[in-house]
Amino acid sequence: MDDPRRADCRNFHCLATPRRSWGTAVKLTAFLGVWLWSLSSASSVLASDYRYHLFKNPEKFGILVFPAESLFPDLESYILSLDFASADSGDAVMRFGTERENQTYMMPEPVQKKHQIEKFVILQILSDKSLMVGIYDPEWGLTLPQAIYQLDEVKKNIPKSLDVFRGKMPEKKPGEKKEGRGQNIDWKLN
User: What is the pTM of this model?
Assistant: First the structure.
């Protein structure tokens, strides 16, 4: 206790002593390393909670469905009837739109590049075979309407979205104001 550096540390755990500072630094570094590793591995585990199934047409447009194991026969046969073919499947990853405006599960970016798909529709299957929809276009980013759709509504709107991807814009009524990003993909409920 004659050490003046320890005089102020009698009632506290003092980290300032030369013997403890090296050991504490090693422990702190090890803790931070384990903590950062657990964060990175947790995100990859969460990303693989969903599997996706990718369909692609000759125009290189895609329809991505997740979770893949929930893909029901009526939806799959409808997608195939639109001249889409099964292209890929795997673990879905959480991704942002082009300007980080929204995020949802999608195919990994290398898969998107491998298939040269720039524009695609994302269909999230909910437990009762209802669907949530996302539209990805590099010009508009990721559009995520909040509505929940039934298959009949999806069947009416996917062809309209594909027409917008092709550059066929729906006609505007006289005097109708043009809005910002994603204005041309307007999914409607009946």
Answer: 0.67
